[in-house]
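Assemble and predict.
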Amino acid sequence: MPIEIPKDKWPGSIKAVTIGATAAEGGTRAKSITIGGQNTMPYLQFEKPTPNTPVIAIEIKSRKPEDWSPLLEKPWGEAMADPAEWAKKAEAAGADLLVLALTLEDTPDSAVKTVKAVLAASGLPLVVWGPGQAEKDNELLVPVAEAAKGEKVVLGVCEDKNYRTIVATAMANGHLVEARTPMDVNLAKQLNILISDMGLPMDRIVMDPTTGALGYGIEYGYSVMERLRLAALQGDAMTQLPMMVTPGFEAWKAKESKVGEGVPEAWGDWEARAVNWETLTAMALVESGADVVVLRHPESVKRVKAAIGELMAA
Amino acid sequence: MYIIGENIHILSDKVKEALTNRDREFFMDLAVRQVEAGAKAIDVNLGPRKKDFAEVWPWIIESIESVVDVPLSIDTTNVEGMEAALQTIKKTQPILNSTSAEPERLEKVPALAKKYGAKIIALTMGTSGIPVEADARVEIAVGTLIPHLMEIGFNMEDLIIDPLVLTVSGCQQYCPELIGAVNMLQYSWDPAPMISVGLSNVSNAVPKENRPLINRVYCAMLMGVGLQMMIADPLDAKQNDVIRWIEAKDTSTPLAALYNKIAERTAAGEEPQFEDFDMSDSDQADIWKTTQILLNKVIYADGYLNQ
């Protein structure tokens, strides 16, 4: 007996958002990347094909991070002290785009210099994060946005206390913003309303609903993502944005990745476990509808990329 | 609508200050103003008062009873405080607010209400919290609350079930279910128990300027399913208009007709329809958006009216 698979028809769809600009588009990127555009829940290819493949960003820092796991120093090595070199290595490792995280030690001059060096070293589209303190973010991101005018960089991180300056400079310089809220559908939607009220077009916002690592609240994270995506498909314009999440940051905070000694033997090889933690965290989020996952370890990048390929082909 | 006036509530800064200063006049005035505005009873929520309950409850009950004749609702979780209040009340049958279905509370509070001949508000909340689904809340009422009260020989006419309003800002999935619970509770037992809700809870954590609109739209929906008693702000004139329009089936203005339509739709088990609203009228457009968040059709955000 033939079985008919029920299909949902949704009135709404996710905005397609393009990050990065090629020479033809007014920038210098080798290619731009488009994310979003879905009209179904994730990977229900029999309802509607997924229009744009989810992408992987690799996180690099303007200065060698002191608090990263030694397991991450192994693959990146000396490049961690030189953002331009790190960017090249990340591109070679298969990144679709780069996240450059500025630090509290940066000055406006050093931040601009680093961003320019990274843009020169790699043709990938770029996301730039401030160090995460409102005043410092504003101090660094405004000159960075001006220096990178036309590149369609994603500026982050916009939060409810700290979005006006970043949104204003994104509007003035043709960039996008990353809107981050703490794992709550109401707050996520509210920040999107506030940002779009300032006049930034919706196709220049990527939302970051925040997530947790496997074993550390990931289920709250993906429930929020699912709810936002359902609302978007039902036609709620203020939730119809692609989602960017940070499984690398979350997974490498988890004890299972962070600690190599003093853990039960049954946990097995540290490195294998750590990479699994990052990979599984990222894949759960991809399957929940993430459009961009930000990772740290090149092996995780390889595995997540392969898995995404399978999801897209299914 | 039987309104139990909510304004003497410890979460209000003015109330807190007046209580600290033992400002009799403040509470007398607030009680009188609520009754003059139509409150049929006065809720008195002073928090747990673990240290000074024996002094503060008699003090406030005497103050309020000296100026109004309506029933007082003793709103506290402190059982000793409840008893101190009940011992003081002289005028009218009081309301004990509240018990839940948690064993410890259920054992103590209804017995106290029975001893003093008070009405009791019983919350549909068990040991594992407040269920989302309407029928699970009804099940707490008919499976736990009512049987226990019958068992202790409580006068069932004095039982008021409260199926618990939660805020649209954070507990949005509860909002449509509560409408269903109010509806079902009326058919859950014979004779039907009295039902009351704390209306303003629906807009807890909502920016102040948006609270009254959410309250009165929800009020219209709940009146549609037969709500006749609530703890609410009797001083909210616009809310009182909505109550009057629905009770009198007054459709003489577009807004009155619209609130009646919302109540009718809800009564019929339907949702308000887009075509019921004149979207060129900004008041009506705001009411439409409010129905959509209350029915959990659109995700609530503080700026939902600007969307």
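The domain at 2-232 of chain B is CATH 3.20.20.20 (TIM Barrel).
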